[in-house]
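Operator note (shift B, R.M.): manual run for Syntaxin 18 requested after the automated queue skipped it. Running by hand, logging everything below so the morning shift can see what happened. Input copied straight from the record, untouched. If output looks odd, do not overwrite the archive copy; leave it for review.
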Amino acid sequence: MAVDITLLFRASVKTVKTRNKALGVAVGGGADGSRDELFRRSPRPKGDFSSRAREVISHIGKLRDFLLEHRKDYINAYSHIMSEYGRMTDTERDQIDQDAQIFMRTCSEAIQQLRGEAHKEIHSQQVKEHRSAVLEFIEDYLKRVCKLYSEQRAIRVKRVVDKKRLSKLEPEPSTKTRESVSSEAVSQNPSKDSEEKPVTEEYP
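Run finished. Output pasted below as returned.
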């Protein structure tokens, strides 16, 4: 069986979703008790924004590293010719697509949550500008990773289409080859009648 290489990635997705629930981001439903626990207690630690921002950046980085690490197997439509333990199945590719889209959407929701909380109870203009710059950086980072995924998926889809097109063309030349081989075999092996004819003339 092929090794399930999506386990680590799916664990990262779960981590982000769990973190977002703690931040009060709705994931598959409304906010729960975690939101009350985090946002209704005060005061919030001074480094809370920075630590949460670093977490989001870290998760986006995990997605980027995962996509780059498995890029070759992911876009290779002909990976069935590889060893059994080295290939990536189409099921795994589909799972990566599903998880990546959830991952990117969840990170985007976390950024929006950070943006909504960034300037609350902050009076220093310098701190506000710094946090705005941090949020812009995180959004740009996520966009670049989303673009990386989109490009890889486009390559994968194109190769799958090309593979299907080639598979439809394969039977035609192989049929012609078999017909050609059959014709050559007939020309090189005369019929039994022509082989027996001289014998009949010698012994009437």
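Quick read of the result: The CA atoms of residues 18 and 27 lie 9 Å apart. Residues 125-169 form the longest helix (45 residues).
Leaving this for review. - R.M.
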